[in-house]
Automatic annotation (TrEMBL):
<keyword id="KW-0028">Amino-acid biosynthesis</keyword>
<keyword id="KW-0963">Cytoplasm</keyword>
<dbReference type="GO" id="GO:0009073">
    <property type="term" value="P:aromatic amino acid family biosynthetic process"/>
</dbReference>
<keyword id="KW-0479">Metal-binding</keyword>
<feature type="binding site">
    <location>
        <begin position="167"/>
        <end position="170"/>
    </location>
    <ligand>
        <name>NAD(+)</name>
    </ligand>
</feature>
<comment type="similarity">
    <text>Belongs to the sugar phosphate cyclases superfamily. Dehydroquinate synthase family.</text>
</comment>
<keyword id="KW-0057">Aromatic amino acid biosynthesis</keyword>
<comment type="pathway">
    <text>Metabolic intermediate biosynthesis; chorismate biosynthesis; chorismate from D-erythrose 4-phosphate and phosphoenolpyruvate: step 2/7.</text>
</comment>
<keyword id="KW-0862">Zinc</keyword>
<dbReference type="GO" id="GO:0000166">
    <property type="term" value="F:nucleotide binding"/>
</dbReference>
<feature type="binding site">
    <location>
        <position position="245"/>
    </location>
    <ligand>
        <name>Zn(2+)</name>
    </ligand>
</feature>
<dbReference type="InterPro" id="IPR050071">
    <property type="entry name" value="Dehydroquinate_synthase"/>
</dbReference>
<dbReference type="GO" id="GO:0005737">
    <property type="term" value="C:cytoplasm"/>
</dbReference>
<feature type="binding site">
    <location>
        <position position="140"/>
    </location>
    <ligand>
        <name>NAD(+)</name>
    </ligand>
</feature>
<dbReference type="InterPro" id="IPR030963">
    <property type="entry name" value="DHQ_synth_fam"/>
</dbReference>
<feature type="binding site">
    <location>
        <position position="182"/>
    </location>
    <ligand>
        <name>Zn(2+)</name>
    </ligand>
</feature>
<keyword id="KW-0547">Nucleotide-binding</keyword>
């Protein structure tokens, strides 16, 4: 097992990364306090709720809520249901929420923890690759509003994060690959050594070999922890984590959120951003090919679909919230392992969208 300490303005918390962690009572015991509410979804509970039994059996006052799975349930109504359970449990300020699931469960349970009695403890137990390397670390919590994703939320840091890599073995192939795109992102924007390691172990990673998974999740969390420690509220370097996301969001919107997982769209977006970086002469020739080859070996699509309409994509990119004064601000690569926020002229962006 590996442990990363994440520092933030109000203190620090550990992220445990390893195998067999859900069943390890010693870890949970260290962080549990007061009455306990377990929040999970139907898919995850079916596989993993039992593994918490040894720990939970020793706790007198506890409840659980199993929500339907999926982004469409990341709503104010689900958040309200979690709050109702906390009231039923007669939870006090010292209560703990255990969030067992992917990013959807983590974001909702985290937001309930942020808002109930102005803040109680949450322990994140992420079960998707995306949640382990991204969503569970950093303290962003929230739910969707019909008018926008993550429109309602709060910053609320967890008391601990327990990333049990065994859970990744039951993850759907597409969800797994989508998580790998975010793993590659850390190497591409700030860690050339990690990128080289990913290149060397791509086949093991695609096959979910446990020791490769430990290293990939550990290095990703370490990178995310360094970024959020330096910029907790997204004033500066945290923006680099959006590499590939402006193109990716436009593609997700263009395909009405029906065709791509978020990470799949980000993979295509990262390659487009790298191509643009090269086109503008910002990074060495061959950088985007290196990135594309790695993503392909991990099983990800890297090209825009044949029906993609460059002008519509460009218009969607203009709506991105990072933009200032009508320029489209993108994260571009200066090299593998180095990125910066750059305002880009629409005509240049169009060049890479039409190719
Ligand atoms: N808070 C943040 O900083 C942050 C960062 C990135 C993404 N997010 C959010 O995360 C969400 C996406 O997270 P996600 O990709 O984990 O989606 P998810 O939570 O919907 O999980 C994907 C699917 O996998 C299932 N699942 C989860 N773990 C499983 C396992 N171990 N085995 C089998 N099935 C399993 C889930 O039930 C679900 O059907 C989005 O809502 C996004 O906004 C938040």
């Amino acid at each position: 097992m590996k442990v990363i300490q994440v520092r933030h303005a109000g203190g620090e918390y550990p992220v445990y990364v390893g195998q067999g962690l859900l069943g390890m009572t010693s870890i949970l015991d260290r962080h549990l306090e007061g009455r306990v509410l377990v929040v999970s979804d139907q898919n995850v509970a079916k596989h993993y709720l039992d593994r918490l039994r040894p720990t939970l059996s020793r706790i007198q006052h506890k409840r659980k809520i199993i929500l339907p799975a999926g982004e469409e349930y990341k709503t104010v109504a689900s958040w309200q249901r979690i709050l109702d359970e906390l009231v039923e449990l007669k939870a006090q300020r010292d209560a703990t929420i255990l969030a067992l699931g992917g990013g959807v469960v983590g974001d909702m349970a985290g937001f309930a923890a942020a808002s109930y009695m102005r803040g109680i403890r949450v322990i994140q137990m992420p079960t998707t690759l995306l949640a382990q390397v991204d969503a569970a670390v950093g303290g962003k919590t929230g739910v969707n509003h019909p008018q926008g994703k993550n429109l309602i939320g709060a910053f609320h840091q967890p008391a601990a994060v327990i990333a049990d890599l065994d859970t990744l073995q039951t993850l759907d192939e597409r969800d797994y690959r989508a998580g790998l795109a975010e793993v590659v992102k850390y190497g591409a924007i700030r860690d050339p050594g990690f990128f080289a390691w990913l290149d060397a172990r791509a086949d093991a990673l695609a096959a979910r070999v446990p020791d490769a998974l430990v290293e990939a999740v550990y290095q990703s969390v370490r990178n995310k922890a360094e970024v959020v420690a330096a910029d907790e509220k997204e004033a500066g370097q945290r923006a680099l984590l959006n590499f590939g996301h402006t193109f990716g969001h436009a593609l997700e919107t263009f395909t009405a959120y029906q065709r791509y997982r978020h990470g799949e769209a980000v993979a295509i977006g990262m390659v487009l951003a790298a191509r643009l970086s090269e086109f503008l002469g910002r990074c060495p020739t061959g950088t985007s090919d290196r990135l594309e080859r790695l993503l392909q070996r991990l099983g990800l699509d890297t090209r825009l679909p044949a029906d993609a309409d460059p002008d519509r994509l460009l218009n969607l990119m203009r709506l991105d919230k990072k933009n200032r004064a009508d320029q489209i601000r993108l994260i571009l690569l200066d090299d593998i392992g180095q990125a910066s926020v750059t305002p880009c002229p629409a005509d240049d962006i169009r060049e890479v969208l039409v190719k």
